[in-house]
Amino acid sequence: MNNYDVIVVGAGHAGIEAAMAAAGMGANTLIFVIKIESIGRMSCNPSVGGPAKGHLARELDALGGQIGKAADATGIQFRMLNRKKGPAVWAPRCQNDRTQYSIFMHHALEEQSNLEIKESTIDELILASNGKEIIGVKSKLGESYFAPKVILANGTFLRGLVHVGEVHYSAGRAGEPASNELSKSLIAAGLNLARFKTGTPPRIDLRTLDYNKLEEQPGDENPQGFSYYRDVKPQNLVSCYLTFTNSETHEIIRSNLKRSSLYGGFISGIGPRYCPSIEDKVVKFHSKDHHQVFIEPEGVNTFEAYVNGISNSLPPEVQTKLVHSIPGLEKAAIIRYGYAIEYDYIVPDEIWPTMESKQISGLYLAGQINGTSGYEEAGAQGMAAGINAVLALDGKEPLIFDRSQSYLGVLLDDLVTKGTTEPYRLFTSRAEYRLFLRQDNADDRLMPLGYKLGLVEDIRWQKYLEMREVYLRELTFLQNNNTTISNELREPTKFVNILKRPEIEFDDLQRFGYKIPPDISEDVRNKIMLEVKYEGYLKRQLAEIDKFEKMEHSAIPTDIDYMKIDSIAWEARERLNKIRPASLGQASRISGVNHTDIASLMVYLKKNKLFGKKDGE
Amino acid sequence: MEYKGDTISAISTPIGIGGISVLRISGEHSIPVVEEIFHSSKKLSKIKSHQAAFGRICDNDQLIDEVLVTVFLAPHSYTGEDVVEISCHGSTFVTNQILEMLLRHTRLADPGEFTQRAFLNDKIGLTQAEAVGDILTAKTKISHLAAMQQFEGSLRKRIEKLLQKTTEYRTLLELEIDFTEQGLEQLDKEQLGGQLTELRQELEKLVETGTEGLILKEGLKVSLVGAPNVGKSSIFNAFLQTERAIVTPHPGTTRDYLEEAINLQGYLIRFFDTAGIRETSDDIEKIGIARSYEIIRDSHRILFIIDGKENENEYAKLLEFTSESRIIKVLNKSDLFPKGKLDDFRTKGYLICSVTDTSGLQELKEKLIEDILISREELQSGILTNTRQIAAVKKAVESTQKAIESLQNDLGYEFTAFDLKEASTALEEIIGKVTTDDILNQIFENFCIGK
Q: Which candidate from B136, B179, B436 shows the least CB-CB separation from A603?
């Protein structure tokens, strides 16, 4: 009774991926959620994707994760962002039906074999008598549950404190209880906690808007989703709307700044710079006389809409004035008020790249609890934690995602190597090998891995293999065969040479005698075109990856006592001791560790015959 | 585990006009890298370890030098990796040029790096390990100190400015990529294109200072060429007498030529009195003449001296070894000619002088440094003074040019950003690193982000 292989605490975006991956790999898994209705809740805006985040969602999908599937099935407006930029940064994004998304995720959990769902608040970790190993968790109701692997995915619930103007109350998010006791248990276990802040805007009633004053933003004509080969046809069911704040709005905010929780001095946590509150925008960028406001419908069975762009922590009556000052929103009825929330997170130098705690073995941390923000970022960590928990149970090698191979790798490596001073969000500019980490090749990069782990269904895998075969077959054909119709050419040339020309699209090859086979999809055409047109750049990028890999594959033991290496600078020793990198490459990315320190480290490793040794060898 | 690092190269012998210089290349690509520039009857990849091959180093068909190349195959080499050693003629110009060619495909070795690799690959025993550690620490301290001294001043500031601009443009591109939909002003492509062109021009200007910087550091080499008795030696001596002669750092010790140096308006001018380049059948003289060619090829300026008899054959011969722009044609003994005759020579481009009555000598001095005169402002704005820096800035020029092209061709901002990152990395090699966090910080500081 009450014995499991893996326990997941929290059923948000991280918890779901963790539990589904663990159960999918065959582990007997239990997932806790404070309220069943809030499984897979999109507590910020009901949207998946965008630059880097869309890439991440595609990668999770390739690995066999849930987010892409759920986003496609419950999407109500789809857009491919950055279309006007280059193909490496095209980014899928969609608006979702908030309720449907939750229901979809709830079903997914229910249908997964080996997985049990339980509504309960977890208050305490149960550790082995040595205090260094997890053996289970204890609920508010006093019940104990045991498992050798526990994944904490509590989101913003740890000592969550909601702020609306001068009013402050304890909550995990508006309307749901915080988990206050668990923080104490984590501190008692020796983990290092710190505090962040984030916020959300008010929600309004779509029936009360003046649409003449709003600019409509429809979805793409040919909507593309996140998940290939699933036969889910993405559909555009709603439009979003754009409007702007004005000087009146800004005046309302300025004259009420002291009543804002943020500017009234009530909040100590650090908020994200990329997602500032409207108070912050008005104060820090005072010369800007207007800011964008997006009206994003929350679903097809509701009139509620998310007012993206005016997240704030002002008192309700000021929020009302603020909303009414915006063109088109003069008579808007506010359904929910915006708020700021402060929460505990665990400083991410506490975890290994597997997401396992350095201090307590068997304990994994995933999602916002590690100081990140975003559903996709949370899902990625959940997936990594779930997979690694089971690999460890089975006594297998851990799976460390490499930053040259996926955004997943960039995220996890940034987190555990560099840490974060604000809620961490992924950007494409964080990826050194961005030209290679594209949304169109996510399947090539990660699906073989997902399939090997048993997370990708056979039918999808077969479809992928078929597509891959067509891709290779046609690419080889174009590389090896000459044009047959050559009116426009002085002499015949290889098809690829034609395709390299900037003005030539894939289908234009027909003009030169290429017969487009019936089994080649649009995706494959685009992919071939991209690989051919950008060959020079891709080669340069691969050369860089090659260099990177050499350092990355120089494994070093993680139990070195760096404080004893005198030739390394003091500050660098402290950082190395804290992070305990797994490779020379990782060591070289730690801030405060320079090139000379790395050289000294290499000398030390060699002298002590530790070079290339992994833990336990 | 065998340490497989990237391929590195460096000049292993003290720089200067000595007999020969040795360049060493180590790493798994060392043989193919050298093979690319080395032309010989023997294929380098085919010769046995510890054997040498004679051949020529050419840069795009232009002969740089005749060299001896020795191959040491891993693990039987100093570093334990594949090592190639190039022995070339010991002139700074030739050696630097070969190094510059090698740096297109390899990285310049850090101080002590060959030894470090030897150690990492078990080529040095445990007892020596501590010593290596010490050397490493000591060397890096020294190089750090040296670097700091070099940077104290204008070059650092100049490169920082260029890097700042590069970062600024990268920021604009990243902003467009990651923060689309923010209602920010769209990137003005024309304007950025113009800015990038300006950046490239500034980088090119900086590269040009490198030639001058090297002259500043190592001296302007001037060789005197002409038939016997035209007055080469007397011009040589006239310079030494009127200007403060200084002890040369690399005294000419061979009997084939004389080297003396003077300080001319702050410039180190090194004169080489050559044995001449006339055709001869005398074997010993032939050796001397061959040496003259090398000196001529190395010289920044060549004084081609006549005393009235135009020597077209010799002049033509000279052009095989140097470019016309480097040659200053001089008519000596002007006191022996009538004015009309002198005017003839002037129209033919000769500079007229006479050691006997010292006329024209001042003009000749000015002519020598005319083109290298670096303005005070330029000196203060920073110049490049070594091959490594020059190579780095050249790389930055190349990458900036690629960025301009990718922007013009609408390849996509991420490709232009990639090109600019390459340019940035090259400049960072000189002064330090710009991280992705720096770029994001710039974005958050300067633009209102967030829906």
A: B136
Contact B183 A612 (CB under 8 A): no
B61 with B124, same domain?
yes
Q: Does B178 touch chain A (CB under 8 A)?
A: yes
Residue B250: predicted pLDDT? 41
Q: Cβ–Cβ of B440/A427 closer than 8 Å?
A: yes
Tell me the one-letter amino acid at A537.
Y
Do B85 and B68 share a structural domain?
A: yes
B253: pLDDT confidence band, cut at 50, 70 and 90? very low
DSSP letter at A439 equals S
Nearest to B178 among A429, A432, A606 (CB): A429
Strand order in the sheet with A122-127: A122-127, A134-139, A144-146
Shared domain for B264 and B281, answered yes or no, is yes
Residues paired with A77 in a beta bridge: A95
B133 and B58 assigned to the same domain:
yes
The CATH number assigned to the domain holding B91 equals: 3.30.1360.120
Q: Is A29 within 8 Å of A8 (Cβ atoms)?
A: yes
In tens, the pLDDT along B101-115 reads 898 888 888 766 787
Q: In the β-sheet with A193-200, what is the strand arrangement from edge to edge? A: A167-170, A161-164, A339-346, A193-200
* Paired tokens of A445: 């990069």
Based on the fold, state whether residues B145 and B69 are members of the same structural domain: yes
pLDDT tier for residue B437 given thresholds of 50, 70 and 90:
low
In the block, tokens 């690959």 appear at B121
Distance, CA of B385 to CA of B212 (rounded, Å): 8
Tokens of A443: 């399947």
pLDDT by residue (tens digit) across A429-473? 999 999 999 988 999 999 999 999 999 999 999 999 999 999 999
Q: How confident is the model at residue B62 (pLDDT cuts 50, 70, 90)?
A: confident
What's the pLDDT tens digit per position in A117-158? 999 999 999 999 998 999 999 999 999 999 999 999 988 788
Lowest mean pLDDT among A459-473, A598-612, B275-289: B275-289
Single residue among B99, B119, B150 that ends a domain in this structure = B150
- Section B386-406 average pLDDT: 89
Q: How far apart are CA A30 and CA A118, in angstroms?
A: 7
Q: How far is B23 from chain A (nearest CA, A)?
A: 23
Q: In what order do the strands lie in the sheet with A363-365?
A: A115-119, A29-33, A6-9, A149-152, A363-365
- In this structure, are B83 and B23 located in the same domain? yes
Q: Look up the domain containing B206 and give its range.
A: 152-212+382-446
Q: How far apart are CA B308 and CA B337, in angstroms?
A: 8
Mean per-residue pLDDT of chain B: 78
Q: 293-352 in B: which are within 8 Å (CB) of A? A: none
Distance separating alpha carbons of residues B316 and B321, to the nearest angstrom: 10
**Domain count along chain B:** 3
**Measured distance CA(B414)–CA(B407) in Å, rounded:** 10
The verdict on B370 and B401 lying in the same domain is no
Domains with residue ranges and CATH for chain A: 6-197+343-453 (3.50.50.60), 203-339 (2.40.30.260), 477-546 (1.10.10.1800), 553-607 (1.10.150.570)
The larger pLDDT score, comparing residue B283 to residue A159, is at A159
Residues B199 and B240 in one domain: no
Q: Is residue B225 part of a domain?
A: no
Subunit contact B4:A550, Cβ cutoff 8 A: yes
A231/chain B closest Cα distance in angstroms:
29
Mean pLDDT of B36-46: 89
User: Does pLDDT of A234 surpass 60?
Assistant: yes
Q: Taking residues A208-213, what's their average pLDDT?
A: 96
CATH code where residue B326 lies: 3.40.50.300
Predicted confidence (pLDDT) at residue A564 exceeds the cutoff of 50: yes
Name A48's bridge partners.
A94
B281 in any annotated domain: yes
